[in-house]
Design brief:
This protein is α/β, with parallel strands linked by helices and about 220 residues long. It has helices at about 5-10, 55-70, 80-90, 100-115, 155-170, 185-190, 200-215; strands at about 20-25, 35-40, 40-50, 125, 135-140, 145, 175, 180. It binds zinc ion. Zinc ion (ZN) binds near residues 163, 167, 182 and 183. The site of zinc ion has 4 residues, from helix 5.
């Protein structure tokens, strides 16, 4: 599956129609331009080559944002939030901007307890109500993005924050063949040092309840 196929599939949990989905990186675009072209048989996402310098998550967000227009099917993802925020912040790229107090406090707590206050403050943002991807760390923009559903549960917010900060600390590691390693052995070992050993169970329960609530619309 190419990146565009994966982005479209992840967004809708299916392929919206039977057309082939392709991605092309082109040198003829200026800056970070991109567009999407289509025929009755194929949808092609054309991205400027410059996009290759950015993370897959960000490119997925871009493709999904274009996909919503083409397929006229609404959906939302954390990657799309990330992309939107990235575009908004392009002029002051990688500059720290103001963020939600809840996130700020959570960052401070985790930084103090687990990182000896050694981490610099990343950009901190709440994303959409996501139930599968609960948080994300974007290396390129130094941004921690956390699903909105944790706004009313600080305990779990801290745990997600801790996880994403571990990504910041450990950086991007790649295998010899160039694949990204997201959760290395050292990462997992350090993650297991989280104080509350029951936290994974609490997280699963919380997400399940939230999802049921969301499903029934209350
Ligand atoms: Zn992770």
């Amino acid at each position: 599956m190419n990146l565009a196929m994966r982005a479209v599939f992840d967004l809708y949990d299916k392929f919206p129609d039977s057309r082939r989905i392709n991605i092309k990186y082109s040198g003829r675009f200026k800056d970070l331009n991109a567009n999407v072209t289509y025929t009755s048989r194929e949808v092609v996402f054309n991205l400027s080559k410059k996009w290759l310098e950015f993370s897959e998550e960000l490119r997925v967000g871009l493709i999904q944002t274009l996909a919503v227009r083409i397929y006229k099917l609404n959906s939302q993802s954390l990657e799309m939030d990330l992309y939107e925020k990235f575009v908004k912040n392009l002029p002051k790229f990688a500059k720290i901007d103001k963020s939600d107090e809840l996130l700020e406090d959570s960052f401070k707590r985790m930084n103090k307890i687990y990182f000896d206050e050694n981490l610099t403050r990343p950009n901190l943002v709440f994303g959409a109500d996501a139930f599968t991807k609960l948080g994300h760390y974007e290396h390129q923009t130094d941004t921690v993005l956390i699903s909105n559903i944790f706004k009313d549960n600080l305990e779990l917010l801290d745990y997600i924050m801790f996880h994403e900060l571990l990504h910041k600390k450990h950086g991007l590691k790649k295998t010899k063949s160039g694949r990204s390693i997201h959760h290395s052995k050292e990462f997992k070992l350090e993650e297991a040092g989280f104080e509350d050993k029951d936290i994974e169970r609490k997280l699963r329960n919380f997400v399940r309840k939230k999802r049921v609530k969301n499903w029934f619309g209350f």
